[in-house]
Design goal:
- By secondary structure, the protein is mostly beta strands.
- It has two domains: about 160 residues, Porin (Beta Barrel); about 50 residues.
- It is about 5% helix and about 65% strand.
- Strands 1-2-3-6-7-8-9-10 form an eight-stranded antiparallel β-barrel.
Length: about 240
C-alpha cells in the first residue's frame, strides 16, 4: 500500500495542468492607425497620401478550437483623416500687365517643386511671366465604418498569438479625395497579419500591418484610388 501511494504521488505531481484558452466571447476595442505613404501596391494609383485613424471595434467569437479562434469583427472610425500632397502654383506676370496669380491643386503623383519663365509674342504683343510650384499638404477629415469583418487568431492557448484580419466598408469625407474631381464617398477594404498579446484571459494588445484600399468604384472619373500600408495598435477587453 505504501509503495502504491509512493508511485501515485509523483505521477500526479508530474501531470500537465490544463492550458486555458486566451480568448473572449465578446470583445470591445480601442485603436489608432497610421500610414505615412501610399503607392500602387495593388489597385490604387494615388501616391504620397497619408492616413490617420482613431476608432472602436466589436468582436464576437464564432468558432474556437486548439488551432484557431475565428471571430466576427467590425470597426467604427469617428475620426478618419486623409492627407493629399498639394501643389501651390504662383504666376508673376510681367507683360502685358504686372499681376500675381496663385492657386493650389492636388495631383495623382508626388508633388515636385519647380520654377521657370515663359515669353511669347502674338500680334506684336509680348506675354511673359515667371512661375513657381511649391509643395504643401492638405488634410481632409472624414469618418468610416467597416461592418463586415473577420479575425482569425491562431494557437489560442498561447498568450502570444499570430492573427489575420480583414474588413469591408466605406468612408465619407468632407471634401473629395484623393483629387478634386473624385468623390466624398468611397468604399474601403483592408486585410493583413498581426500579433495579439494577452495580458490576462480577457485583456490584450494587438499590433497589425494591413493593406488598406480606398476607392469610389468608378462612380467618378478619374478614380485613382489609394493603396496604403497601415500600421494599427489595438487595445482589447471583454469577457
Amino acid at each position: 500500500m505504501i509503495a502504491l501511494i509512493a508511485e501515485t504521488v509523483p505521477a500526479c505531481s508530474q501531470a500537465p495542468a490544463d492550458n486555458p484558452y486566451y480568448a473572449r466571447t465578446n470583445t470591445y476595442s480601442l485603436f489608432s492607425a497610421y500610414s505615412n505613404d501610399s503607392s500602387h501596391l495593388l489597385m490604387g494609383e494615388a501616391e504620397n497620401r497619408k492616413l490617420l485613424e482613431f476608432g472602436v471595434g466589436y468582436g464576437r467569437k464564432l468558432l474556437q478550437n486548439r488551432f484557431v479562434n475565428w471571430q466576427y469583427n467590425a470597426e467604427f472610425l469617428p475620426v478618419a483623416m486623409e492627407s493629399d500632397p498639394t501643389i501651390v502654383n504662383t504666376v508673376n506676370w510681367t507683360s502685358p500687365i504686372v499681376v500675381t496669380e496663385s492657386g493650389s491643386y492636388t495631383q495623382i503623383t508626388h508633388c515636385v517643386p519647380s520654377s521657370g519663365n515663359f515669353t511669347s509674342t502674338e500680334d506684336g504683343k509680348t506675354y511673359s511671366y515667371t512661375y513657381t510650384n511649391t509643395c504643401s499638404r492638405q488634410w481632409t477629415v472624414g469618418e468610416a465604418i467597416s461592418p463586415i469583418g473577420f479575425q482569425w487568431n491562431f494557437l489560442p492557448r498561447r498568450k502570444l498569438q499570430p492573427m489575420f484580419i480583414a474588413h469591408g466598408g466605406y468612408m465619407y469625407t468632407t471634401k473629395p479625395i484623393p483629387i478634386e474631381s473624385a468623390g466624398t464617398f468611397n468604399f474601403t477594404f483592408d486585410f493583413g497579419p498581426g500579433i495579439e498579446l494577452y495580458r490576462s484571459a480577457t485583456k490584450s494588445i494587438r499590433a497589425e500591418f494591413r493593406f488598406h484600399h480606398i476607392s469610389d468604384a468608378n462612380t467618378t472619373t478619374p478614380n485613382p484610388g489609394i493603396d496604403s500600408g497601415l500600421f494599427q495598435i489595438t487595445y482589447s477587453f471583454g469577457r
